[in-house]
TrEMBL record:
Membrane-spanning ranges: 15-33, 39-58, 237-257, 263-283, 570-590, 602-620
UniProt keyword Membrane present: yes
Keywords: Membrane, Transmembrane, Transmembrane helix
Top-level division of the source organism's lineage: Bacteria
Entry protein name: PH domain-containing protein
Compositionally biased residues, Gly residues: 207-220
Species per Swiss-Prot/TrEMBL record: Actinomadura graeca
Region (Disordered): 197-230
Length: 715
């Protein structure tokens, strides 16, 4: 059908053990019984332990029965059983409307005789956006209601709503209620899908997918995004489970070979059988949960692998995809096969707004995935605009008189700073001797000012919009008054503009080649217009050529050098010493009997471990890496001057903490499109790093696509 939505359902026929717990207890009970002969006793234990796997494989050998799933089409809303027959059906002609409740996420069907709660959208395998778009394409009214499905089935609530009115609790002039906001968000996403379906394809970003930096793999001109590799790996999990099973079988066989005469031997055999069964089941569960999601994004197609095997690969041609919705969604539980909520999933919609595929993305970084798709020409729709990032400090330092003076603003008067009222009279003045420095910077896309006292301590910080003065006016007025003002972003912006303007004038003229055997005065230039050689003595000189020195780089430009915190260095020292001490003690226990006893061996191994731990980390610490922040960019240099890596200011989109799912927080450097360029392996002081980035015009935090950073505000 043209408009049809099929709910998410697991594949049928997967091999799984049946009633593994009861059969494991039965195997332990058989192990405790004194069955003779002994070979029959061991055979019964192994057969009972293998029965769950044989029962799970029997339906697989006969036929593959798909799981029940829900479907919304022109015939209505129905649940399709394993044999293809309808188990539950709501005909289209009898449906007056559908509703989603925000409290419990239940889908409710409205018909002429009342209302029926069908079930939760998560358990039905239906995403709210896909359900909303498909229902509207089929002509079924779709609404989002605040509350739970039980509220809609309460007659007393119907009387209360009928008496008070549906909009009686909506605050006048306030924000939208939750149900209106959710429905508006779905309508906005539907509008974005319609725009993507009717607009011509957008070309990919030049260089998208070819810029290094994320640590992700590359596949030709495409980009590969992988979830973190499971620890331990799938191969180690399988090997460990196999070894546990073989060890349990070997121990049971050994006990049987020794006769298994006593109760203690039979109890040990039962414990080994239980350990083998538990090890195999635990390894299977870990293997199912350790599936790695892998995306390969190219301009021509999308390849997504959600689970091992041929059935886990999904291929989508780019020509069939109108837009990709990246946000919270659904995924199949690896153990039960039932739909579950996921923090991140991707829905691929076609040009007729049909749902092409559900692409697993749990474990990936949504920021990276959205920008990678956008760079390769795919239209990306997200649930909504990200909230603006707020600074860590607010307006606590504003004096109370600022709010008491109506129409007040910050002014530069009488060699200092003052607060003037609407008439221009200064009601609060800060003399010049109290001002040690004025710093202008950008925080969250807005211009801020910081004031320092004569000792260099910050005592005031506020946005210039709250002070009712522009950045340019404050900078120019303060410089005319002789106040110490620093606007690193403005100076860096002017320096970059100046270098880009004069760089064509600094290109040296090509030197003439003097033929062999000819005097230097007879050298010719191949630059004559008519092709005739021109003597060097008659060569015209460019009086306006300016020899400009190369601009300073991230290593040579003036900046701030940030080191690892003292706490982290002391902690690393302690961990190094403890590790060496543990090795020394283990070595003393292991090799002590051969070297004169534990005490004699530990008497020299423990001090040696202490010296090795301290000396080894001292050798590393004396040449440790440090982060250099300047207006020209970032660089990591060692104490001996070796440059590990450097990045120019034009390649940096943000510096901050990456708190991606299933990963440890790390300090990274993003490029303007959102890819991770570099990772800082040592933890500097975050407050000092933030202040250094803001002082030298380096954006702090992930790139904000909704708010471009350069150039600085009010330039």
């Amino acid at each position: 059908m043209e408009h049809e939505l099929v709910g998410l359902a697991g594949p049928g026929g997967r091999w799984r053990p049946v009633a593994a717990g009861p059969f494991a207890l039965l195997a332990v009970a058989l192990a405790l019984l004194p069955i003779r002969p002994v070979w029959l006793w061991a055979t019964l234990i192994g057969a009972v332990a293998a029965i769950p796997w044989l029962l799970g494989a029997a339906p697989e050998a006969r036929r593959r029965r798909p799981r029940p799933y829900w479907r919304l089409s022109a015939d209505g809303l129905e649940r399709i059983g394993p044999g293809g027959s309808g188990m539950v059906r709501y005909e289209r002609s009898r449906i007056d409307g559908l509703a989603l409740t925000t409290g419990d996420g239940t889908l409710t069907v409205f018909h002429r005789f009342g209302r029926t709660a069908v079930g939760g959208t998560t358990s039905m395998g239906l995403e709210p956006l896909a359900l909303f778009v498909t229902a509207r394409r089929l002509g079924i009214p779709m609404h989002v209601l605040d509350g739970e499905a039980s509220d809609l089935l309460d007659p007393a609530l119907d009387e209360a709503l009928r008496g008070g009115g549906l909009d009686a609790d909506v605050p006048a002039g306030g924000p939208l209620p939750r149900d209106h906001a959710a429905e508006k968000r779905l309508l906005d996403q539907e509008a974005a899908l319609l725009a993507a379906a009717h607009e011509p394809p957008r070309p990919p970003v030049p260089g998208g997918g070819r810029e290094p930096g994320t640590g992700q793999g590359r596949d030709g001109n495409g980009q590969r995004l992988d979830t973190p590799a499971p620890l331990p790996s799938r191969r180690r999990i399988a090997v460990l489970g196999t070894l546990v099973a073989l060890l349990g079988a070997f121990m049971v066989a050994r006990i049987a070979a020794e006769g298994a005469g006593g109760f203690g031997a039979r109890l040990a055999a039962g414990c080994w059988a239980l350990a083998a069964i538990a090890g195999v089941l635990g390894a299977r569960r870990r293997l199912l949960r350790a599936a790695q999601v892998r995306w390969t994004i190219t301009v021509d197609r999308l390849l997504v692998r959600g689970r091992p095997g041929r059935g886990g690969l999904q291929v989508l041609p780019a020509a069939d995809v109108a837009a990709v919705v990246v946000g919270p969604g659904l995924r199949l539980d690896p153990l039960s096969g039932e739909p579950r909520g996921a923090d991140l999933a991707a829905l691929a919609f076609g040009h007729r707004l049909e749902l092409l595929a559900r692409l697993p993305a749990h474990g990936l970084d949504g920021f990276q995935l959205a920008h990678a798709l956008d760079d390769h020409g795919y239209r990306v729709v997200t649930p909504g605009a990200r909230p603006p990032r707020r600074p860590e400090y607010g307006l606590e330092g504003l004096p109370e008189i600022f709010a008491q003076v109506p129409g007040g603003r910050l002014v530069v008067a009488d060699g200092g700073l003052g607060w003037a009222d609407a008439a221009g009279d200064v009601v609060l003045k800060m003399p010049e001797d109290r001002i040690g420095g004025i710093e202008l910077l950008t925080i969250g896309g807005h211009a801020w000012v910081r004031l320092y006292d004569s000792d260099g301590d910050e005592f005031f910080a506020a946005p210039l919009s709250a002070l009712r003065i522009s950045r340019t006016d404050l900078r120019e007025a303060a410089r005319r008054a002789g106040l110490p003002v620093n606007d690193a972003e403005y100076d860096a912006y002017l320096s970059a503009a100046f270098h880009s303007a004069v760089s064509p004038l600094a290109v040296p003229a090509p030197e003439a080649e003097v033929p062999a055997g000819e005097p230097e005065t007879a050298a010719v230039l191949p630059a004559a217009r008519d092709g005739a050689p021109t003597p060097i003595g008659e060569r015209p000189t460019d009086e306006f050529a300016v020899a400009m020195p190369a601009p300073p780089g991230p290593v040579t430009a003036p900046g701030t050098l940030l080191d690892a915190t003292r706490r982290s260095r002391i902690g690393t020292y302690g961990m190094s010493v403890l590790l060496c001490q543990a090795v020394a003690l283990i070595g003393a226990v292991w090799l002590g009997p051969e070297l004169g006893g534990f005490s004699a061996t530990a008497s020299w191994s423990v001090p040696a471990g202490l010296l090795i731990g301290l000396g080894g980390y001292w050798l590393y610490d004396r040449n440790r890496a440090q982060l250099r922040v300047s207006s020209a960019g970032l660089a990591v240099v060692t104490r001996r001057g070796r440059v590990e890596w450097d990045l120019g200011r034009d390649r940096i989109g943000g510096v901050g903490i990456d708190e991606a799912a299933e990963r440890m927080p790390r300090l990274v450097v993003w490029n303007p499109s959102g890819r991770v360029l570099r990772q800082v392996t040592f933890p500097p002081d975050l407050d000092e790093l933030r202040r250094a980035c803001e002082r030298y015009g380096v954006p702090w935090g992930p790139p904000d696509a909704d708010r471009p950073a350069p150039p600085p505000p009010e330039l």
